[in-house]
Design brief:
Radius of gyration: 21 Å
Distance between the termini: 23 Å
Shape: globular
Structural class: mainly alpha
Largest sheet: none
Strand content: under 5%
Number of helices: 17
Order of helices and strands: HHHHHHHHHHHHHHHHH
């Protein structure tokens, strides 16, 4: 069994567990006759610790035992999630919140932390596309599995099933060729690793695109409900838009896996995010539900392909000794910005679905224009060629 296959197996399982946990905890809280606020607090406790990711990333960059650190974090995640599920409704609420928070603190290593070691696992030209696909499959299959299991055998077994998958993933991670694959002579301090996101021009531009567009991505599920009610007057119409978005994302991930993106990663990202802004603006003009479904499907497709481009860009432009910091910090900040987007969309419900889409398109357009202006400015400044400039422009092993 190839290293890439084992990597993808673990990646799909842990990312599915992470995505499914947000649904499972809310459903379990309701089943245990907890308040809706308690469900929200559990989700917040799971997601908020992602901002602590850079400190874990420094450890991952420095250690020669990367697979042990990753596997240990997956075990802690699984045990924390299981402990919270078993204690909810039987022990003081703070116990479950602390357990979920402990699991959430390991969350960054399920996403960006795992992606940061992919170069050591495989030399495939399609590896970043496969990695993007693992996010798509996990993000779709995890919540779907929780919904199906909750309906058939109950929410507690469903959440415990998610915890079990992370424990199995830990065993798979221990088989990957990680501990001797990366030179560790270069050690980048935390502040230097974070500074790289702002000081290295390509990383800065990709980070701007990622974070500002994440506001739109976080808002889209909320916008879909509002737009569905505007167009059809039913919640089910909004759910159809969300399903179309997810299906488009899976299709986009498959397409970039079969036909890898070619070109300079940051230029690809710039063009794809510009396309996303344009499609969002067109969706804001629609008055037909069927057209909106097509538009949301295309949004999902463009988001998946742009995500593959950003993964390749982080791998290409991250300084030596700071790969994990770049991946994990970017992922943590993206989660935070997406949460902000969901909150803003909720407070702006009075604008209607089309008004919300127009605002989202404007913000993503701002991200594109900011990155484009930065690119034009830095290219006009005389600089000496770097290793990044001399590399082949095909998105391939970084």
């Amino acid at each position: 069994m190839s290293g890439l296959f084992r990597y993808l197996t673990a990646a799909v399982l842990v990312r599915g567990a992470d995505s499914g946990a947000t649904v499972g905890l809310v459903v379990l809280a309701m089943d245990r006759h907890q308040s809706a606020a308690m469900g929200g607090l559990l989700v917040a406790a799971l997601n908020a610790p992602h901002l602590l990711g850079p400190w874990l990333a420094v450890r991952l960059d420095r250690t020669v035992h990367r697979r042990r650190l990753l596997a240990a974090s997956y075990v802690v995640y699984g045990l924390g999630l299981a402990g919270a599920a078993l204690g909810l409704g039987h022990l003081p609420a703070v116990v479950s919140l602390v357990a979920v928070g402990l699991a959430g603190a390991c969350g960054p290593l399920l996403t960006g932390g795992l992606s940061s070691v992919l170069d050591e696992v495989s030399a495939s030209k399609r590896k970043h596309s496969w990695d993007a696909l693992s996010y798509g499959i996990g993000g779709t299959a995890g919540p779907a599995a929780v919904a199906g299991l909750s309906a058939s055998i109950g929410p507690l077994p469903a959440v415990l099933g998610l915890a079990t998958t992370t424990l199995f993933s830990a065993a798979v991670i221990m088989t990957l060729p990680l501990d001797h694959g990366r030179a560790t002579g270069t050690v980048v301090r935390l502040k230097d690793g974070l500074a790289a996101l702002a000081q290295r021009p390509p990383l800065r531009r990709v980070t701007v695109l990622t974070l500002l567009s994440a506001v739109e991505l976080g808002a889209l599920p909320v916008i879909a409900v509002t737009l569905g009610e505007d167009l059809r007057g039913t919640v089910a119409a909004g759910a159809a838009l969300t399903v179309a978005y997810g299906a488009g994302g899976l299709l986009g991930s498959v397409l970039v896996t079969v036909w890898p993106l070619r070109g300079e990663p940051e230029i690809l990202a710039l063009r794809l995010f510009a396309t996303m802004a344009a499609v969002t603006a067109l969706c804001a003009l629609t008055t037909d539900h069927t057209t909106a479904i097509v538009g949301f499907g295309f949004l999902g497709l463009v988001n998946a392909t742009s995500f593959a481009a950003t993964l390749a860009a982080r791998a290409r432009y991250a300084p030596p000794g700071a790969h994990a910091q770049v991946f994990v910090t970017s992922a943590g900040l993206k989660v935070a910005m997406a949460a902000l987007g969901a909150a803003l969309a909720g407070t702006a419900a009075g604008l209607g679905g089309r008004g919300q889409l127009a605002c989202a398109a404007s913000l993503t357009t701002l991200a594109v224009l900011t990155a484009w202006a930065d690119l034009r400015f830095t290219r006009q400044r005389p600089t000496s060629p770097t290793a990044d400039d001399r590399r082949d422009e095909t998105v391939r092993p970084c």
